[in-house]
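so my prof wants the structure for this chain in the tokens format not the other one, which i didnt know existed until like an hour ago. anyway here's the sequence
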Amino acid sequence: MKRIQFHRYGGPAEMRLEEYQLPDLADDEIRVSVKAASINPVDWKIRQGAMKFMTGRKFPRAMGQDFSGVVEGIGRGVKRLKVGDEVFGSTPVKTSGSFAETLITKEALAVAKPAALTHEEAATLPVAATTAWIALVHKAQLKAGQSVFINGAYGAVGQSATQIAKAIGATVVGRVRAESMSAAKAIGADAVLDYRQSLPGNLMGTFDVVFDTHGSLPANDERRLAKRGGVILDISPSPTKMMRVVLSRSRHFVMGKQDEATLREVAGLASKGKLKLSVGRVVRLSEAIDLIRELEAGRRINGKGLIAIETA
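here's what i got, hopefully its the right format
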């Protein structure tokens, strides 16, 4: 079996496609034959060592979290899933491992793949869609009739947030690159702004929720856009924003939570055609290191980067 892994924290040059062996399953774990995996910025941040306080210093370390595949083994305590089930979900941050032919994860981090979705479609969802769900539903408690401003509305989290907000019944104003304006409108945004243009003055103080999914919206602009009592959400806060999160009840730092309940919610929307993320490029496992390197360097592919796993 082969997977992408690294032997020390560092830059893209540390990635290797190598043979590996998985350990025996713990009672609460499942072994999955991976059919597709998607790439997220957190994957290279883990490899860079940004989360080493969680991941530790035991090497080699695997890469990748999002996956879709078929269960081929279960631990003694697994009750919900069985061998042969098609599932999608995420791996634990501490172990990662979805950029591989086979992975091990917790049963609690995977759910049945909706029959209406391909493995590639399902693999786009776990990190991005659950992050948007936690932000809008849990943190902001978004309701029908409210208004949302989404900065970065055509990134993976931004696309998820736009579609989740529309499914709830909210009005969405998105801010994107000029070349993504039509696409953002097509997935449901009621109005779309070019991020290179100044924010219109008539929007100030009009949003129940301001969600910066990109990290580029200044803290003062977030505050000006929000209504009095409005909620401000960030997934990549600057030090200034993080300080304001600590000091303000209306500001929240959001991290995804790939648990069974949240995965079921996004699966439900996706199976109804209300949540679908664009795919920018699909590569084989043997080509994936090059794609990860390009994405890490800032290349834009107008959708998720996917790895299609082909096994003999």
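also thought this was worth mentioning. The chain has a mean pLDDT of 96.
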